[in-house]
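Would you mind writing out the residues of a protein together with its fold in token form for me to study?
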Amino acid sequence: MSTETPFRIDIPQTELDDLRDRLARTRWPDELPGVGWSYGVNKDHLVELVEHWSTGYDWREHEARLNKVPQFTTTIDGQNIHFLHVRSPEPDATPLIITHGWPSTVYDFLDLIGPLTDPRSHGGDPADAFHVVIPSLPGFAFSGPTRETGWGVTRVARAWAELMRRLGYRRYGAQGGDWGSVVSPEIGRVDSERVIGIHVNALANAATPADPGMLDTLSEAEREQAEQNEMWWYGRSGYATQMGTRPQTLAYALNDSPAGQLAWNLEWFVDWDPSRTEQISVDRDTILTNVTIFWLTATAGSAARFYLEAGETWGRPPERSPVPTGVANFPGDRAIRGLAESSNTITHWSHHPRGGHFASLQAPDLLISDIRHFFRTVRPR
């Protein structure tokens, strides 16, 4: 039986006024001359973005865009869960649950909803239609904060399986990027009899081996890529180490300074690989909408805790998933097929010439096409 409650975002103006006041009073640190992004987020870039956030960005515009999509909340395993739910006009559509990552929110997927749920109206084949469910991760945004420990990857996967059961979907698919690329395969492990297929992008746990012995199973080219990935991650993993070990210490700063929270989130949105010109930049208002959502819900610290709670998945190979799995790779993604195959039943592996880590924002057309292509191979006929 479904127990969801309709939900609408309506932020009091006093909170928006407080945000602008805090932004105007930002206490800026110094910056060494000529270092660019090599020491972290560039000050000139951040100052310009904060100025736009304070004087040019219109939260109400993006709040209204979110509110055009049916939203709900429910309680699963004691935790409030917020989700978008859009049913397709096609009666035989495939149910699909889509999971975001960090520092993202459900806002990242708004451009996917129309083409996925109603391909007939978007120049596509109605046979490719999906009923779409897009939850906010526990602790993130309108699903936050979490109120107890233990909300790691497996617990989230079980909650998503329960959510799909409550919505009446007996058989369904799962999709996700970043943390969603870890949660979605886990849904296949905990609910394998009901999950028909898993599609991921920005596959996060197949870049370096969890067990050094796995290197012997890789080709020479894959071993070389794994070594390069290790060096790349060493130079960019500070944010994950902090959130994965001492998130509460960080939470005080993130919850008190909007400029500080923007800088922390911007590190991954912008500085993850700025040298690769084929990676399309994420629109600045989209970045600010994600950051504003975290700020207004006071969940930046709660979201950071997910890295510690998800520690169960670090340093060990996941149990192999029996569910057919498709992986879409975009510029900057570092997944190695040999590592992905060690814990997933890979039936689809693609590479795309443009986009990036946030494919739903940087190349939504390619991501939609890849999702459609994969699920054609696993849909019941």
In short: The mean pLDDT is 95. The chain is about 40% helix and 15% strand.
